[in-house]
Design goal:
Number of helices of chain B: 19
Shape of chain B: elongated
Strand content of chain A: under 5%
CATH class of the largest domain in chain B: Alpha Beta
Oligomer: heterodimer
Distance between the termini of chain B: 124 Å
Radius of gyration of chain B: 37 Å
Distance between the termini of chain A: 81 Å
Shape of chain A: elongated
Mean pLDDT of chain A: 89
Low-confidence stretches of chain B: 260-264
Largest sheet of chain A: none
Mean pLDDT of chain B: 84
Low-confidence stretches of chain A: none
Order of helices and strands of chain A: HHHHHHHHHHHHHHHHH
Number of strands of chain B: 20
């Protein structure tokens, strides 16, 4: 077997193609082989580069522990033999994972380490760190600060390794603008993202998701296209048996719920049940159940991320069994969400998650009261 | 109105440098002019033995190129040599063509001499036509002024000598080895001997396709192998003769027989036209996937650029590229059919190149995938051969068993062999991608079955409930004995073949990652938060259990299963020994801590064995 640089280059190239196509487990396997080959050839720098991309691929494949194992090995290599950009890239990837599982203290310390390394290396790579500051602020519910950092990161982005893709920056700005309730900004960013025409499998859905956020930010406009796109995404995802959807599925379900298009939602959840394994999923499932309850009570659909208009009376007599069932479902999901929220609030030193769930639960209680009052008016 | 002014001397040098980015091209251009000149003289004197000489005068910093060709008279010097862009060769060739006289010349644009000004500070041309009463010397310093002087007839024999006085910073061209290299690269196939300082010839003169034996396939292959081997210093494992009708192309490609570290890169060809190499190491003409091939392509129909160091990307170029791709694929498939051992050797040496290329380029992959060998427990097999040995299931599909962890081959091969399962070792780079692609191409005929999925009852049949219960104390004892192992172990009992395999260990990439983290933390350079994170990751990976399957068909396991108290400390080294031997058989690395424990247990076991032996002997 030939053990040479061209083989190493081919492995890395093949891994890149696998990533581009969204086959992250396969990409990680190929990068692992590249790591071993680089080690055999005594190419420390190439080994670290392959470790960096192995870690990135594993992260996208949902294997965070294995990803960290690869990334930490990349950082552990003596700096003299390694391209500092690769080492810094590994630190950025570790920070990305840490934001989802480690306390704020830890993330801040790593961010500071990143800043120190940049200052020592005199490199203009601050955009990824600014981006991560933005992500941390976003996770803490500090959307004004998140916007500031993300804008700064986008303005400081350089098209050279280590970097994040333009789509990553624009998507972060877009969802932050959505949280800041700035429909014009969301629309502008969604348009910008669309113009980029990202090619990677991971980034193509971002265009759709941004378009959906713009649609929601404008108060569910009359345009039927986002709804059709949501339906198509669910159908395609079911057929392709995509291992990971990176959040697009839940957002498609939200769009269809806002359009009161319940049949595809029911079909999708029956075929592939969503488990409330994270705060976002639990909250999303609760919102879907709440939406069903509103529909059963004859109330208009509401975007729960954007608040709820006051309702004093119900327009139609509800099917009490059906309403009770979906309200129970929502209650269970919000209870799960509250459990996650407590962990998240503690980890991220915020109240945003708990407040969000409490607000939802208050809406749920109002619906309960409305349904109960209507039932007491019509005891039959 | 003031006028723009230009420095002719500056313009000449700028033009020369922009046309000829590689300074050594002047050697090619001057050899080419010499060749053309001889060809013209041979029209009148067909028996003339053409000869080109290159002479070095280090003291004078001069490199001279002499030919015994047609030479020039005063009018030709003034019309062609002194006018940039006017070509004597092109004009004469056109004039002869109008009279239906064919002449094999190379030059076209009349700017070849210009290339010498990239390296020269002065050029002297001495020339005389055969039979002429006087010779001429033309001298230029790179400016618009030139000197033309008549010389006595004995001042220059018939033909031309171009003396290039090199600039002081270009004396590297006076090195004979460098000249030899340049001549081999560009002018190896010129049909006249080239002598260096009177010795030689230093060029091959003819390529195999210029020889009469080219029509005989055996002779052609032999000549081509010798030629390519000598030219590139690589013994070819496969030579691919090129004799293409459209566009008309001759030449030869080869796949090297062995990997030569630091050898010339594959995927490149030397592009010849009219026996002169106009572009060496061209990496664009071969299809992108053909990185394992190199050679010589001689195609007169390609349209060269003005600098003659490249060709235009026109329809001829693209047609040639396609034809070369088809020729390479046909040659590989022909070798696979005709000479299987040699094809397997080729795949062995170039496995990554061939499979990587097949994985990356669908067209190439589709053409060769059926012929590529895969390692199995019954030797190297192609996928059609593999499937021909597999029975079809009820759904008509044939199973394609594979495993993808190199470390597992040691334990999977005997398992597969004992169960009559044909398993592919897809641990090499690109193998799994190709298997998945193959199944994608034949979804109704092939079913992909990963063997390293844990708990496959086809390989590890379960015991009945009563037998399971009998082994329960042993399983608990093993779990307790391994409680201190670096990773939690889940022990199960199965009854599988081969019976001489006492235990197998099944682990995913987590065990490998855990090993790596352990190794890393032994010599960690990480500080503070990262060190903390590394410890956490190591611990989380450690908590992932791995499966140890004890084999109830093995006599040792049977004996252990019969023990009344397998938990007794004296059995501990035996129980841990089962685990460590399975780990080693699966070619997993023992961490330092595990190695220490294994070592201690093995010492105890050996001591006890010796004790038994001595008692027995006594």
């Amino acid at each position: 077997m030939t053990l040479d640089r061209p083989t190493l280059a081919r492995l890395r190239e093949q891994a890149g193609q696998a990533r581009q196509a969204g086959h992250y487990a396969q990409a990680a396997h190929l990068e692992r082989q590249a790591v071993e080959l680089a080690e055999t050839l005594g190419l420390a720098g190439e080994r670290v580069r392959a470790l960096l991309w192995q870690g990135y691929s594993l992260r996208q494949a949902g294997e965070d522990d294995l990803a960290l194992a690869a990334l930490l090995q990349a950082i552990n290599e003596p700096t003299l033999t390694v391209d500092p950009a690769d080492r810094f890239g590994a630190l950025i990837a570790i920070l990305h994972i840490s934001l989802e599982r480690k306390p704020v203290r830890f993330c801040r310390a790593l961010l500071e380490q990143g800043r120190r390394e940049l200052a020592e290396a005199r490199q203009p790579w601050s955009a990824p760190l600014d981006f991560l500051e933005g992500e941390l602020a976003y996770r803490q519910g500090e959307f004004a600060a998140a916007w500031h950092w993300h804008e700064r990161a986008w303005a400081g982005r350089r098209d050279a390794h280590p970097r994040l893709t333009p789509a990553t920056h624009l998507w972060a700005l877009c969802r932050t603008a959505f949280r800041r309730r700035e429909p014009a900004e969301v629309e502008r960013l969604a348009h910008h993202l669309q113009e980029l025409r990202p090619n990677a499998a991971l980034e193509r859905p971002l265009v759709l998701r941004a378009r959906w956020l713009a649609w929601r930010a404008q108060g569910v406009a009359a345009d039927p296209t986002p709804v059709e796109q949501a339906r198509t995404l669910l159908t395609r995802a079911a057929a392709e048996r995509e291992p990971r959807d990176f959040g697009a599925r839940l957002e498609a379900l939200r769009v269809l719920a806002l359009a009161s298009d319940w049949d595809p939602i029911t079909a999708d959840l029956r075929q592939k049940p969503l488990h409330p394994a994270t705060f976002e999923t639990a909250l999303g499932l609760g919102d879907l159940a709440l939406g069903r309850a509103r529909a059963a009570l004859g109330l208009p659909a509401v975007d729960d991320d954007y608040g709820e208009p006051a309702v004093d009376a119900l327009p139609v007599a509800p099917n009490s069994d059906r309403v009770a069932a979906v309200l129970d479902e929502a209650e269970q999901d919000y209870r799960e969400a509250a459990r996650f929220a407590e962990e998240q609030d503690q980890r991220l030193q915020t109240r945003w998650y708990g407040d969000t769930v409490r607000e939802r639960q208050a809406r749920l209680n109002r619906l309960h009261s409305l349904a109960d009052s209507r039932e007491s008016e019509n005891p039959s | 109105m003031p006028k723009m002014r230009a420095s002719f001397q500056g313009l000449v040098r700028v033009l020369a440098k922009s046309l000829y980015p590689e300074p050594d091209v002047f050697v090619r251009e001057l050899l080419q002019n010499a060749h053309d000149s001889i060809q013209f003289r041979r029209l009148d004197e067909p028996e003339l033995r053409g000869e080109i000489r290159v002479d070095v005068d280090e003291a004078a910093r001069t490199l001279s190129f002499s030919d015994n060709g047609a030479g020039m008279d005063q009018r030709e010097i003034e019309d062609f040599l002194s006018v940039i862009g006017s070509t004597g060769t092109g004009s004469r060739a056109q004039e002869l063509a109008s009279r239906a006289v064919a002449v094999a010349t190379i030059g076209q644009f009349g700017i070849g001499l210009l290339s010498a000004f990239v390296v020269a500070e002065r050029i002297d041309v001495y020339t005389r036509k055969p039979g002429a009463a006087r010779a001429w010397r033309w001298t230029n310093h790179g400016g618009e002024d030139y000197e033309l002087a008549a010389l006595p007839v004995d001042g220059q024999p018939p033909g031309t000598r171009v003396a290039v006085t090199l600039a002081p910073n270009q004396t590297a061209f006076l090195d004979g080895r460098r000249i030899r290299q340049i001549v081999r690269r560009y002018a190896d196939l010129l049909p006249f001997p080239i002598l260096l300082n009177g010795f030689g010839p230093i060029n091959a003169i003819n390529a195999p396709w210029h020889e009469p034996g080219w029509r005989d396939p055996d002779e052609r292959d032999r000549m081509l192998a010798a030629f390519l081997s000598q030219r590139y210093g690589d013994p070819p494992l496969l030579v691919i003769p090129l004799d293409l009708p459209h566009p008309r192309t001759l030449g030869g490609l080869y796949v090297a027989a062995r990997y030569a570290p630091g050898g010339q890169a594959g995927g490149a060809v030397d592009l010849f036209q009219g026996r002169m190499c106009i572009r060496s190491d061209d990496s664009e003409l071969l299809p992108e996937w053909a990185r394992f091939v190199r050679g010589v392509v001689d195609c007169p129909e390609l349209q060269p650029t003005a600098a003659r160091d490249n060709v235009h990307r026109d329809s001829v170029y693209h047609a040639l590229r396609d034809s070369l791709g088809e020729t390479i694929i046909a040659a590989l498939l022909d070798l696979a059919r005709r000479d299987r051992p040699r094809f397997l050797r080729l795949c062995d040496w170039h496995q990554d190149a061939l499979k990587g290329t097949a994985a990356r380029h669908e067209a190439f992959g589709a053409a060769v995938l059926d012929a590529l060998p895969f390692a199995t427990n019954q030797g190297q097999l192609t996928l059609p051969d593999y499937l021909a040995r597999q029975p079809a299931g009820a759904d008509g599909k044939r199973p394609l068993y594979f495993f993808s962890h190199e470390a597992d081959a040691n334990q999977f091969y005997p398992l597969c062999q004992a169960h009559g399962v044909l398993g592919i070792n897809a641990a090499s780079a690109f193998d799994e991608i190709l298997l998945r692609r193959y199944v994608g191409q034949h979804p109704d005929q092939v079913d992909l079955k990963p063997l390293d999925r844990l708990d496959d009852p086809a390989l590890y049949p379960l015991l009945d409930a009563a037998a399971q219960a009998r082994y329960a104390p042993l399983l608990r004892a093993v779990d307790r004995a391994l409680a201190e192992a670096e990773a939690p172990v889940r022990t199960q009992i199965r009854q599988f073949q081969p019976a001489d395999l006492s235990a197998v260990v099944l682990s995913g990439q987590r065990l490998t990652a855990f090993d790596q983290m352990e190794q890393m933390l032994e010599k960690s350079l990480l500080a503070n938060e990262l060190a903390e994170l590394a410890g956490e990751v190591r611990d989380r990976l450690r908590r992932q259990p791995l499966d140890l399957l004890l084999n109830a068909a093995h006599p040792l396991v049977q004996r252990l299963g019969e023990l009344a108290d397998p938990d007794h400390p004296r059995y501990r080294p035996v129980l841990t020994g089962l685990y460590y031997s399975a780990l080693l058989n699966a070619r997993h690395r023992l961490t330092p801590a595990a190695a220490r424990r294994f070592h201690a247990d093995l010492q105890a076991l050996l001591a006890s064995h010796l004790e038994l032996q001595t008692r027995h002997d006594a």
